[in-house]
Design goal:
Elements lengths: L2 H20 L4 H22 L11 H10 L2 H8 L3 H23 L2 H8 L1 H20 L3
Length: 139
């Protein structure tokens, strides 16, 4: 198992516990939600990474920005939740997801390096971010 898969295995239960403790998601809903939410966050970061504060990945500004960038109705449809439940779930775990990504990559510069953004341009960065998110969130 790759390191990202191991990280997901380690952190998924924490994310599910947060969702069931801080929102009205059931354990089954939370289990379905985590991989989809993780993918949505990775997609938003891939599309708008230059707009984020990479030195403070899990900061309030990034959380607010990403909430506005993620297709919450689409996320709700993919997870079988109402848009209100999806928004609440995302708000509860988004800072955690950003923190896990930052820790894994060693901060903003490490994240860019892990994404391939320093050597190959935007295309490589997006591909690298997709791989990072896919491994982290089980896709």
């Amino acid at each position: 198992m790759d390191f990202l898969g191991a990280l997901l295995e380690e952190k998924q239960s924490t994310l599910v516990e947060t969702l069931t403790g801080e929102t009205d998601l059931s354990p089954d809903e939370a289990e379905r939600f985590v991989p989809e939410a993780g993918s949505a966050v990775v997609d938003a970061v891939a599309s708008h990474g230059s707009e984020l504060d990479l030195d403070n990945l899990d900061g309030t500004g990034n959380v607010e920005s990403l909430l506005g960038m993620i297709d919450i109705p689409g996320l709700a449809t993919r997870t079988g939740l109402s848009p209100q439940k999806a928004a609440g779930g995302l708000l509860a775990i988004l800072p955690m997801i950003l923190g896990f990504l930052g820790i894994k990559a060693g901060g903003g510069p490490g994240l860019l390096s892990a994404l391939g953004g320093l050597s190959g341009g935007a295309g490589d960065m997006l591909g690298g971010l997709g791989k990072l998110g896919g491994g982290l969130f089980g896709k």
